Amino acid sequence: MNRPALSLRPLALSLGLMLLAQPALSASRENAQKLLAIQQSTLDAVARGLVENPVRQLLSSAETVLRARVPADKREAAARQIQDAARKYMDDTLPVARRRAADLAQQLLLPQIEQKFSDEEIRQIVVFYESPVAKKMQTVLPDINKVLAERLLSDMRGELQERIKLLDQQMSAALGLNLSPPASAPKP
Length: 188
Hints:
Layout: H1 9-38, H2 40-69, H3 72-116, H4 119-130, H5 132-174
Helix pairs in contact: 1-3, 1-4, 2-3
């Protein structure tokens, strides 16, 4: 039986094309990885917020309880113990949250970046973020935003205090802690 000889040429050509395409994929992945690395401070801020926000709330509540229920001679020691516990929580939990954020960024953000941006767009974004102007922007923006935040707080301090006081009174009344009507509540 005469069988036609198998040509290895198409197979070699296909394998060659696949190998040529491989560096392009890894270059794209490499740029997407660079973009994630550039965004590390944002990932860290997300992790820090996740860990710090509950601590801030607990410390605020603890301060209220300290003033209201702890004898004056024991407040300083209790406050120190609370601060130490909060610091230990932060020291133990923040690194775990940062690592988890980095892992999730690899799992969730990397595919999103590669899906929503072309290779060239990713490259351009990386070039921008690595540029001197982007680095300057990242160092200057916090100061610019601080000016806005300070002015906003200054402009709204009185209004915010009144609104918070009213909210506190309403919440206390709802909990049955203070049955007298709020002093600055609007008349029905």
